[in-house]
Amino acid sequence: MSQTFNIEEELKKLPGKPGVYIMHDETDEIIYVGKAISLKNRVRQYFQESRNKSPKIVRMVEHIDHFEYIITDSELEALVLECNLIKEHRPKYNTMLKDDKSYPYIKVTVGEDFPRILFARQMKRDKAKYFGPYTSAGAVKDTIELLRKIYKIRTCNKVLPKDIGIGRPCLNYHIKQCQAPCQGYVSREEYHESVKKALEFLNGSYHGVITMLTEKMKDAAERMEFEEAAEYRDLLNSVKQIAQKQKITNSDMENKDIIACAIEGDDAVIQVFFVRDGKLMGREHFHMNVALAENRTQIVTGFIKEYYGGTPFIPAKIVVQDEPEEGEILENWLTKRRGQKVHLEVPKRGQKEKLVELAEKNAQMVLAQDLERIRREKERTFGAMAEIGKLLELPELKRVEAFDISNISGMESVGSMVVFENGKPKRNDYRRFKIKYVKGPDDYASMEEVLTRRFMHGKSEKETGERTSFSIYPDLIMMDGGRGQVNVALRVLENLQIHIPVCGMVKDDNHRTRGLYYNNVEIPIDTHGEGFKLITRVQDEAHRFAIEYHRSLRGQAQVRSVLDDIEGVGPARRKALMKYFMDIEAIKNASVDELMKADRITESVAQNIFNYFH
């Protein structure tokens, strides 16, 4: 518990106003964000002993060290703030989409005088129109290419009309896939008509383009322009292929999303059917981190907040299985985001109910298919980390850092730091080090420098309050080696007065991991277990990252040979030595007479080389 934060006293200060509360653990990490009509009533519920709380909430409360809150003028404002904070901090106990990767969008730059159709990974606050998000980047690119061909939309980055007439028209004009607005060959009004039709296509209206392409194909055939007719035929087939996917139609011509959920333990899948103009345009499924949610209503409510807080298109109607929590406030928030009224509907009968049932069946199917994969992934990541933690008696093992040194063929040494959290590589936290203070291939001294720089940087950040990957200490340091490397790490940590467990990954004569060196004891590992496989991945990743950095520096001619530090050895003699001896170790162990056998090496230079290494 924080010495400066008394939870009982702070609970008494809570106002009875709407707002957002933010729970922190002892490392100051945000672990939960929630909203309340009355902060006083809601937050106090977490800490009341008499209240019946689920095991998930009990686990979360056990990790709360302190909390803060932000007062808002209304519950709607609190909802908006809650969504923004969850998206920003991704707290572990909030119900969220598991997959936070960026989905592709189709972007139409309608704010430009001559708009373009582009592929985008993020939706920005600009004057463009966005369509998506989509799950298939390939399908997005194919659609963009099709629209450019049909409507002859420009692909260049020229600023029009400012750059009209500058240069010559590009290849797309000559192959009849652009109207060359850069040359003034098409008016702004005519070009905008093409863009308007492209927008209609993206909104699901295919009838017009099918009619247009059919007429042009027939016209070209009548003129006996068979190549041109074949081009229109191919475009027509591409459009029909997209249009044929719309097999469910509805006479009401509504735009709506159908949302259903399937749950199995701590795993959930949300299935969304996208209906536009009464046609089923497509579907997507999303895996959810259930966190504190107890039922599918809470899960779907969490999904609606996160998904529609980021998607550019919100339909007029969202159809769900159950009445969502805070239904009225959600409708108000969605309406505000859309700019027009949005209804949340729970169907009781008819086609909408059948669509919800169909969406639920699809969600259950996806979940059933993925549960085994999810189980294997958990064993491979969380399970493997728990296995290592049990072996080393570190029950809270979550974050591991591993280090490696690379000095291929006597080249200047470089170091790598890789990070694994919950059994998965956290590549944003990887760091690389170019050895500054150690001369020659001395792995122990190089490792001591890397570790000292890493943890001195971390101590400095902790003192100043700066937060980067350096300020987060691992639960375990894994060294690529045995007693020697472990002792180097322990010495560095002792000098800096930092207490972190250190183990070595010991290898056998065949360079395969055989055990962990920990607390002066070598602990054998089950080579068939997930823990062993994770250790191997950590070793390989640290080695790969170091080698990759070394090669990139060598490619830039930024890393020199240790031979360059020897008087009388220049590029030509260095090349001659490496050609004769093949590697730096052979040069290091050679006598003066043996060194003189290499081309260009005189007795005085050979003596300098021998003295340098001895």
Give a verbal description of the structure.
It is a single chain. The protein is of the alpha+beta class and 614 residues long. It folds into 5 domains: 7-94, GIY-YIG endonuclease; 105-205, no CATH class; 256-369, Ribonuclease H-like superfamily/Ribonuclease H (Nucleotidyltransferase, domain 5), CATH 3.30.420; 399-555, 2-Layer Sandwich (Nucleotidyltransferase, domain 5); 562-613, 5' to 3' exonuclease, C-terminal subdomain (DNA polymerase, domain 1, Orthogonal Bundle), CATH 1.10.150.20. The protein has helices at residues 7-12, 39-46, 55-62, 75-89, 137-151, 171-174, 188-202, 207-222, 226-243, 296-308, 327-338, 350-392, 443-464, 483-496, 530-555, 571-581, 584-589, 592-595, 603-613, and strands at residues 19-24, 30-36, 66-71, 96-97, 105-108, 117-120, 129-131, 256-264, 267-276, 279-289, 317-319, 343-345, 399-406, 414-421, 424-425, 431-434, 476-479, 502-507, 513-518, 521-524. The strands form 4 sheets. Strands 13, 14, 15, 16, 17, 18, 19 and 20 form an 8-stranded mixed beta sheet that branches. Strands 4-10-9-8-11-12 form a 6-stranded mixed beta sheet. It has a 3-stranded antiparallel beta sheet with strand order 2-1-3. The radius of gyration is 32 Å and the shape is globular. The chain starts with 6 loop residues before the first helix and ends with a helix. Mean pLDDT is 83; it is low at 244-251 and 555-559.
